[in-house]
User: What shape does this take?
Amino acid sequence: MRIGLVDVDGKNFPNLALMKISAWHKSQGDTVEWYEPMFSGHFDKVYLSKVFSFTPDYDYPIDADEVEMGGSGYCISLVNGKEVFNKLKDKQLPTPVEHIYPDYSIYPELTKDTAFGFLTRGCPRGCDFCIVEKKEGRCSRKVADLSEFWNGQKKIVLCDPNILACKDWRDLLQQLIDSGAEVDFNQGLDIRLMNQEKAEMLSRIKITQIHFAWDRYEDKEKIIPKLRLFADAWGKRIHHNAVVYTIVNFSTTLEQDLERIYTLRDMDYLPYVMIYDKEHCKPVYRDLARWVNNRFIFASCKRFEDYKK
Assistant: This one.
């Protein structure tokens, strides 16, 4: 069969589902290539994958006997400014495809010496702004060993929603330690679940920059002590190496946003503003994100009020 792939979001970040689909079809003897509507000709089957709901849909004609669409971008939609999950549109990869070693060759520049994958799925938090509970369940569970998608690459990018909530966290963190690879937890770690043992094991993983999140203002009595615990365990390495995602335009006031931002900076953490429903937010939130997320401006201008001036 002749198989075509379409990364609807673009090719700025590898689409793991397409990499697995490509690997499986190649193992069956099929040919796989990126679909180009003007030059590709006829295909037996074309797969379209979209991760983000705000990405415009693919509107070019497709010359194929069969077309299949999947990914979070097709089962999540914005309704009155909130993300709504449609279970009927949620497609899961068949088990043999889900657990195959990804075909990194389709993203040669982005995956050069880098592995991408999930060790766990699901999250017990059930946050209103997050779709993970509806899509993956309200329990963090192990879904793979590291060897399923890593084969000696120097860097590993993990997309897990909450690895520290998984009962197998010791085993999984030890696998990352043993790999000797540089690890990027790109979805952030749940600081509320931090303890001395977890902080110590994380300190043995090669991490150039670690990410946490402070989403709910009312969690400050839980989060601030845990941030201090982690900072004590990591010492000077915490400076400029620990980023805390800070959601705004959801359930907090601007004053509460600024309190979180100033508190994080005073503790030597780097806040990173994430705007909920960026398309419809007030201009002040875009200003806030520009101030905080530009490290040069944030370092030179200590107060948001001064930046606004």
User: Anything to note?
Assistant: The longest helix spans residues 220-234. The chain has a mean pLDDT of 92. The longest strand covers residues 43-49. DSSP finds eleven helices and 14 strands in the chain.
